[in-house]
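Cross-posting from the chemistry board since nobody answered there.

I work mostly on the small-molecule side, so proteins are not my area. We synthesized pyridoxal-5'-phosphate and want a rough idea of how it might sit in this target. Sequence and SMILES are below. Is it possible to get a predicted 3D structure of the two together?
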Amino acid sequence: MQTTTLPAGVGQNASPFLHGGEAAAIAAVLPTGQYGHGPLTERFEQALAQYLGVEDVVAVSSGTTALVIGLQAAGIGPGDEVIVPSLTFCASVQAIVAVGAAPRFIDVDPATLCVTSDSVLGALSPNTRAVMPVLYGGRSVGLDSIRDVLDARGILLIEDAAHAFGSRTGTRMVGSTGALTCFSFDPIKNLTTGQGGAIVPRSPEEARQARSLRLFGLAQSGKERASITSYAVEGPGLRSELSQINAAFGLVQLEHFSTVAAKRTHLWRTYRDALSKLDTAALIDVDVDRSVPFNCVVRVSADQRDTVFEVMRGQGIGVGVHYPPNHAQPAFATWHRPLPVTDETGRQILSLPFHPALSEEAAHFAVAALSRALRATS
Ligand SMILES: Cc1ncc(COP(=O)(O)O)c(C=O)c1O
C-alpha cells in the first residue's frame, strides 16, 4: 500500500512558532527565583507600549483575564449589558458573564465574520454599557461611524483583539485607537508568551485599576511589601499577573515579530490565490493589507461541511471550526436570540491549517485536499 507523506505542519490547525532564543531567555529567569510579576514583566509591558505607540500596557496571565480585568477596570458589572458577536471563542462571553454582566449576542457580516456599525446600533438597549467587537481573524473592526453615538450614551468600546496583535486599523495599530483593547498571547496567537495577555488602558487611572485587579487588589508592589509590616487591600483582585518566565518568552517573540507577521501574511495570500480557483469554497476576508492574519477560514456548503471536516481529518489535515456559535451554547441559553447569519455561518465555516511554519506547498496541499473532499461529497 502506498502511503502519502504529508507536508510538515499540515496536520496542525495552529501551532506556536519559535525563533530560537526563547529557551535561553526562559532559562535565564530560573536562577533568579522570581517567577511572578517582576522587572521582566515591566520590560515586556514597556516594549509592547513602544511597539503599539501607546502610553501604557498592562500585562496579565491570559487573554481571558485581560477581558475580565478590562471590563472590571471600566466599571462593567451586574445589571450591565455588553454587546458581543455570538461568533467568537467562548472566552469573550465567559469574561462578560464572569463580571456579572449580560452578553447581548449579535450577528456578524457574512463576508468578514465581524460585527458592523448597523448590527451594533440595532442591538442598543437602555442597559447597554459596552460593546465588545471581536477582531476575527486579525481584522480590525471599524466602528468610527458610531463612536459619537456610543460616547454620547456612555457606552464603552472594549476590543477583543485576541487574534489581532500587529494588525492596523487604517494607519493606526490595533490598540492605539482609544478603545480599551485586550490581546491574548496564548500559544497559537500572533505573538505568544506561552500563556498571557495584555490590556491597553485608556487612562492612567484605568491602568492603575487594572494593575490592582491583577494582583489581589493590593495597593503596594511586591518590592514595596517586602519592606513593610502590613499592606493595604484597596479593592477586588485575584492573582492574574504575567510571570517573568512568560515575559521573557514574550520579549524574544516581540523582537522577531516582523518575521512572523511576514510569514502569516504571505501564507494567507498563498491560500487566497490557491482558493480563488475553487468555486465551492469562499474565503473569509481578513483585510490582509492591514492585518496580521490569525487564521484562514473558508465557507463551504452546510450540507458538506461536517463530512469534509471528517474526510480531511481522516487524511491527517488539521482542519477546525472557529467557532461554534455561543448563543446556542447551553451555558448561555438565557441570552439566546435568533441570529440567522451566525447560525448559517456556524454550519459552513472550516478553518484550514494556518501557522507561520507552514510552507506554500503545504497550503496548496490543503487546498487540493479540500477541493477533492468537496467534489467527493457533493
Ligand atoms: C477571540 C478570543 N478571545 C479571547 C481569547 C482568550 O485568550 P486566552 O486563551 O489567552 O485566554 C481567545 C483565545 O483563544 C480568542 O480566540
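Reply from a structural biologist on the board:
Welcome over. Reading the output above for you: The chain has 13 helices and twelve strands. The longest strand covers residues 81-85. Happy to explain the C-alpha cell format if needed.
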